[in-house]
Amino acid sequence: MTVLGYFNSLRELGGARRILEEEVQNTIKAYGARRRIGETPGLFQDRKTFSEVVELTSRVSTDKVAEARRRLEAPFHKIDQRVDCAIATNMISVGLDIPRLGLMVVVGERKTHAEYIQATSRVGRDDERPGLVVTLLNIHKPRDRSHYERFRHYHETFYRSVEVGSVTPFSARALDRGFAGALVGLGRHTLPELTPPQGAEQIARVRPALERHLLEAFLARVRQQPFADEAEREERLRSVQNRVVDLLDSWRKIFDDYLGVGVELQYQKYELDGPKPLLLEMLEKDFESEHHRKFRANRSLRDVEPEVNLLLRDLSGIQVEDRA
């Protein structure tokens, strides 16, 4: 019952908002008058009310975005909270997870394939309810027309068209942000003892075997990457090897500290109730020790940097005395 409109640009979104607030509302107020010839009762009823259009874009303040998300989660029978139509740009490509949304209208072909896949996955997230995505293409735009002409084949094979990421392989910054999560994930899949949620407590018993497997896998991956010269390749190999050993040492230290005070350990906080998590959110601020800080892992591509307060000073009212 809630339509989520997805647009390429704020200009197109602004035009659609005007249509929704004027033409659509005026049309549905007299929809009951639409009858077939000779039809007395008609199939439709007039809609006297239409909720305020909810916008999820960069020009909306953060508090209003949070309020919009809360309203979108409200069931449609709550008349004072329900949303008839929400319009958005690529701001919602990731991070919007509202199971009740089931209908999206995509206006125009997306600029990237990854964005198209991410955007259309915002609806139909409930396993028990289907989602419907309607794509509106413009015949006067060559890209839209090309997309229409191969619509079915594209949707059957669109994962092969996803753009390649631009992260520099095994750079220091990339290792800082992603290596801990990759190490724990690979270790959990490599040894069966580490697979259960509390398999993190097996680090003391399987440390030698785990270190051997991880070094083989990661160093082999480093050797596959193109580097400017052999010296750079050797430097990256040493860096990765040192990080593997350092993270495993910290993992063992965290487990030993918790074991000493009778606290259980698991991989992630949402898996079981009670045990402490090994992996922490990327924007986590409070750490029990520096060992815990090393095990921050991204759960969203939006969580890349902590928030900062930007203080703006208006200098327009300040008078400057002319001493010339």
Brief digest:
With 324 residues, the chain is of the alpha/beta class. The protein has 9 helices and 9 strands.
Account of the protein in words:
This protein has 324 residues and is α/β, with parallel strands linked by helices. Helix content is 40%, strand content 9%. It contains nine helices and nine strands. It has a five-stranded parallel β-sheet, sandwiched between helices. The chain has a two-stranded parallel sheet with strand order 6-7. Strands 8-9 form a two-stranded parallel ribbon. Helix 6 crosses helix 8 (230-260) and helix 7 (203-223) packs antiparallel against helix 8. The longest helix has 31 residues, at 230-260. The radius of gyration is 27 Å and the shape is elongated. The mean pLDDT is 86.
What characteristics describe this protein?
alpha/beta; 40% helix; five-stranded parallel β-sheet; two-stranded parallel sheet; 9 strands; 324 residues; elongated; single chain
